[in-house]
């Protein structure tokens, strides 16, 4: 994992710590932290100097395929295990605060969180795009794209 200076195209930092391929990276809304998810089933929180601040080992039962920060600073992650987990950083320590019901029939490739943090959408190999209420942890809408979904925005 590398951090790049867009003006020069040079690497400004290397982030070493995952044991297997990194599949997803996201910045916090204040740009102070970076979250990464990998094939080693872990999630790592980094500062922008490349120092690992926290690690969630076995964040999923299989690869962590997508990670996002919510506006409140929670980490929402999706995985090859078809699960969406929510972890909180607010108390200074990481703890799992939620899990969405398993509604996808195959692995997940993408999770995205709404700007106000109340909703998220998931998509994956099964071709379903599901909209979720993050507060109530319930499915609001389910649409079939009829092909794999690789990313959401």
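Sequence proposed for the structure above (153 residues):
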């Amino acid at each position: 994992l590398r951090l790049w200076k867009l003006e020069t195209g040079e690497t400004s930092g290397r982030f070493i710590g995952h044991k297997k391929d990194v599949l997803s990276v996201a910045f916090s809304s204040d740009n102070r932290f970076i979250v990464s998810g990998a094939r080693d089933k872990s999630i790592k929180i980094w500062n922008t100097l490349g120092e690992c601040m926290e690690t969630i080992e076995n964040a999923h039962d299989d690869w962590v395929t997508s990670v996002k920060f919510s506006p409140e600073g929670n980490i929402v992650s999706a995985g090859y295990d078809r699960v969406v987990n929510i972890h909180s950083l607010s108390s200074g320590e990481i703890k799992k605060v939620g899990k969405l019901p398993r509604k996808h029939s195959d692995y997940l490739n993408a999770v995205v969180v709404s700007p106000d943090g109340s909703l998220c959408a998931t998509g994956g190999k099964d071709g379903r795009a599901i909209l979720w209420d993050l507060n109530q942890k319930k499915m609001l809408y389910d649409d079939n794209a009829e092909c794999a979904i690789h990313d959401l925005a």
